[in-house]
Amino acid sequence: MSDTLTEQKPKSVKPPKQKKPASLWSDAWYDLRRSKVFIIAAVMIAVLVVMSIIPGLFSSVNAFDPTTCDLTKARQGVSAAHIFGTDNQGCDTYSRVIYGARISIMVGVFSTLVTTLIGGLLGLLAGFYGRWTDTILSRVAEIFFAIPSTLGALLILALVGRENAGIWTVVVALSVLAWPMVLRIMRAAVMSAKSQDYVLAARALGAGPGRLMGRHILPNALAPVIVVATMNMGVFIAAEAALSFLGVGIQSPDISWGLMIADARNRFLQAPEALLFPALFLSLTVLAFVMLGDAVRDALDPKLR
Q1: Are the C-beta atoms of residues 151 and 242 closer than 8 Å to each other?
Q2: What is the CATH number of the domain that holds 279?
Q3: Residue 69 lies in a domain
Q4: Can you give the pTM of this predicted structure?
Q5: Closest CA to 104 of 290, 293, 277, 258
Q6: Which residue has the higher pLDDT, 58 or 302?
């Protein structure tokens, strides 16, 4: 009796799906989503941004309406009607703190954009072309870099005059002396990236300067610039408050946390709330951007992986 052997066909094995090669940005986003520091900082900044865009969501009192101020209620403490008390003019401190976020955020964002664009572009050109381009741009940057940013902004605004001081003059004054630091960081990153094999291969295949800078070098040189730009927002917000406190920055009737602190400093013992609450919001805002910068740095720095 012969056994009948039944041949079974082997099961077809599907080849494993090829994963897309991980990039610096995808790895960084993966790490950021799991960073508690990043989540806390992002939530704080999101609340501040919404507060600056739509302050009416947080306060029913229009801080720019002078009829809401009552001199008979000046320097009152915390109460049900005024949860942060009132200032020297009898204005609600809480509503002024809410509306003061707009100027601080605007100065921080626009100053960062201006310095990042100017310093990043000049740093890209200096690092890529080198030679006399690098020499000229680096020497010019060193001249500006030798002047302290806050002191230089103070001098510029003093020359402009209080009657001409505003958001955009403060942005220009802070940006004029802050871009050299971004130039140095971008220049160093570009000089490191342009010596990599993929850039040399693209150059050998005939890629022009524009394609090399835009397609191969710039995406790989942005990481340190983004980290510095994130931290610079907090620095610019603090600098604006310092300039307003010294009387050369934002002027009334505009509302700024630094201006509120300056107005309340002489009557601190009678009404400490008018100084403490804007100072607290200023500190929390700067802290949020510093925390965000630390989280972004940890995510983008391959040495920390």
Answers
A1: no
A2: 1.10.3720.10
A3: no
A4: 0.84
A5: 258
A6: 58
